[in-house]
Amino acid sequence: MKIFFVALCLLLAPISFAQIGQPKEITTSQTFGDYRVHFTVFNTTNIPAQVAEAYQLVRGKDRALVNISLVKITEGVPSLGLNAEVTGTAKNLMQQSQTLKFITIDEGDAIYYLAPLVFNNEELLHFTVDVKAPDQSAPFRVTFNRTLYKD
Fold first, then answer.
1. pLDDT tens-digit profile of 115-139?
2. How many domains does the chain have?
3. How many angstroms separate the CA atoms of 70 and 150, rounded?
4. pTM listed for this prediction
């Protein structure tokens, strides 16, 4: 079930944003030397009820998940998700801020981080996420925007 959830997150991320007003191609990762931070945001209604229950995630038309993973590139090959400290915020156009509270999903050989958030239909959100690898003194900062739509 865990592998199913990771695959679902990766497959649904592009679909969630192929809507009016969104560019056809959106950035979903940023590279920092040997590290790459992957980031997606998707509606919780895309998660099957049994998976949401297993991870204690609340599903709803006005709820989304921010999905973050950190990989290290060694000889051109990315690792699976690594352990990291992840913090962040989401701000709307009125500068109202939501602190993102990430939970760790550890599947043994892959680790990723999910943060739930509530949004209004057609709301443009500005995300700032800091990801700190254990062997780095400073976090990697990624910023991105997403317009979210209720299903």
1. 999 999 999 999 999 999 988 899 9
2. 1
3. 28
4. 0.81
